[in-house]
Amino acid sequence: MPIDVIGMRRKSVFISGAGRGIGRAIAERFLEEGYIVGAYTRSGHFEWGKDVEDNLYQGQVDVADPESYKAAMEDFMSHTGGQLDILVNNAGVAVMGEFENQKYEDEKALFDVNVMGCINGVHVALPYLKDTKDSQIVNISSGASFTGTPDLAVYSAAKFAIKGLTEALDIELMKYGIRVIDVNPMFVKTDMVMDGVKAGVDVPIFKTLGLTLVPEDVADVVYKATRDRARKRPKVHWPVGWQARILSHQHLLPNALPRALTRLMAKRHNKQR
Length: 273
Description:
Blueprint: E1 12-16, H1 21-32, E2 36-41, E3 56-60, H2 66-80, E4 86-89, H3 104-130, E5 136-140, H4 153-172, E6 179-185, H5 191-198, H6 204-209, H7 215-226, E7 237-240, H8 242-247, H9 256-265
Parallel strand pairs: 1-2, 1-4, 2-3, 4-5, 5-6, 6-7
């Protein structure tokens, strides 16, 4: 297994969807911190623009395919001696715009990647996580997991599923010393989001809130969250951005307020029901 100059085992992190956007920013942050990084993406190898060969292993993974995920994990584990400190389930796709205009095949593909991809990742990583002391799972979720988000209905539903999965697994896997958390940015200026905007997809909440977060903001919270184990009651949900922080406390608010706030942000006054 990789050993640093003072004889300590170097920690490792596997990141899905690491070719661009949030996944790439997370990979770069952990590289800066000296981790052995497995940066895997559906397209395989990609350019990094700097010398990171000693710490970075790249490869192809289709997270919706359990066999592909298993092969990718085995490939990375061959470089770490079977040790996995952190799994980051980041790979995701979005379906944006009004629900009635969406295609079934796009909605199914979203759940296959965003939900089943996360589940597949946990299944294939679990044997290695169990063999690594103080290991962690980080699921990249969204502020849309705190309240149903119009024009992102299926995406929001998938992120609700990830939130529930995270809470359940954090309790189930406690017996192995494995911590499970999710990180919940509101809306991030990534290629995936901007491609939809440039294509003319109307998502009013983007215009109201603006796309002020960048991938590095999410990467900073991911790294901070993985350092949180010393706290007596570590956090499970880590919102990113002030809007997500407000919505994350909706259980403390009157029942109608989160929905009213979301409707206000989405500027849907002309469609009162």
